[in-house]
UniProtKB/TrEMBL annotation:
Keywords: Cell membrane, Membrane, Transmembrane, Transmembrane helix, Transport. It comes from the Bacteria. Residues 101-290 form the ABC transmembrane type-1 domain. Its main location: membrane. The chain crosses the membrane at residues 34-56, 103-129, 136-157, 163-183, 218-243, 263-286. This is ABC transporter permease. It is a multi-pass membrane protein. InterPro entries: BP-dependent_transpt_permease, MetI-like, MetI-like_sf, OppC_N. Belongs to the binding-protein-dependent transport system permease family. It is found in: Cell membrane. Gene3D superfamilies: MetI-like.
Length: 304
């Protein structure tokens, strides 16, 4: 058996399923014009969320009943002061849509990070050690999958109460299974490779092997799953807020705006349509980006 030096053991071996260099990834993404458009939409949404106090023309909760249900600027009775019109309480729709992006993106990113952390640890342990640890952890995953995710989230939020961080925790703890299964599958295919065997032979600990050798090789599929999970979490948060079980009512969210506007669809369509469009574009852009990342993570994508 070839003896592997400690320095060589720390390197990620060539030919593992990791994504290529940053320049290769960037070139592959730029060839996909739809992905470029989706990334541009996401950048605009992120900028709007980060700089909402500077971009939004009004306080999103500022009410003026004299201006209630004003139509968008291009319709009769509309005003350039409120380009997207006002809602039933005279609040500026453009400001509320901008501020709603903050909650949606924060919940989506927070839930994906939490679920990814839990699922990655579970998948690494399950795939690397196998045996009883694998059986126990995968049966827990099966139990979780037996419950519809949204119904489970509704039950937990109903028990804990509404709140931004509660929603993030709930969506994170109900979304780890997909990460765990993918990581487990990748680790099981890697643990018998020569570089793992050689690392064990020179005395590298299991924790170090998982952290330095296995984890870097599962980052590509993890990035793809995380991107798609952000979109699912954004929609789930909007669903919870629509049902009144998400964040508190005083916090602007697209889901609560949809709930408020459903009564006015026949007369003041803009109250529900604009937050619905924002939610649809966000989810669509994230999913397109996730599909593009999945294509880039496939080594065959570089040869197209």
């Amino acid at each position: 058996m070839t003896v592997m030096t400690p320095a060589a053991a720390d390197r990620v071996p060539a030919g593992t399923p990791a994504v290529g260099s940053g320049s290769v990834v960037l070139r592959a993404l730029l060839r996909n014009k739809l992905a470029v458009l989706a990334l541009a939409v996401l950048v605009l949404l992120l900028a709007a969320a980060l700089f909402a106090p500077l971009i939004a023309p009004y306080d999103p909760n500022s009410q003026d009943l004299l201006l209630r249900l004003r139509p968008p600027a291009w319709q009769d009775g509309g005003s350039g002061a409120h380009p997207l019109g006002t809602d039933q309480l005279g609040r500026d729709m453009l400001s509320r849509v901008i501020y709603g992006a903050r909650v949606s993106l924060l919940v989506g990113a927070g839930a994906a990070l939490l679920a990814g952390a839990i699922g990655t640890v579970v998948g690494l342990v399950s795939g690397y050690f196998g045996g009883w640890a694998d059986r126990v952890l995968m049966r827990l995953a099966d139990i979780q999958l037996a419950f519809p995710a949204l119904l489970l989230a509704l039950a937990i939020v109903g028990f804990l109460g509404s709140g931004l961080w509660y929603v993030i925790l709930v969506l994170g703890f109900t979304g780890w299974v997909s990460y765990a299964r993918v990581v487990r599958s990748e680790v099981m295919s890697l643990r018998s490779r020569d570089f793992i065997t050689e690392a064990r032979a020179i005395g590298v600990t299991d924790a170090t092997i998982m952290r330095r050798h296995l984890l870097p090789n599962v980052m590509a599929p993890l990035a793809t799953i995380a991107t798609l999970h952000v979109a699912a979490a954004v929609v789930a948060e909007a669903s919870l807020s629509y049902l009144g079980l998400g964040v508190p009512k005083e916090t602007v969210t697209w889901g609560s705006m949809l709930a408020d506007g459903q009564l006015y669809l026949g007369t003041s369509w803009w109250v529900a349509v604009f937050p619905g469009i924002a939610l649809m574009l966000t989810s669509l852009a994230i999913n397109i980006t996730g599909d593009a990342l999945r294509d880039v993570a496939d080594p065959k994508a570089y040869r197209r």
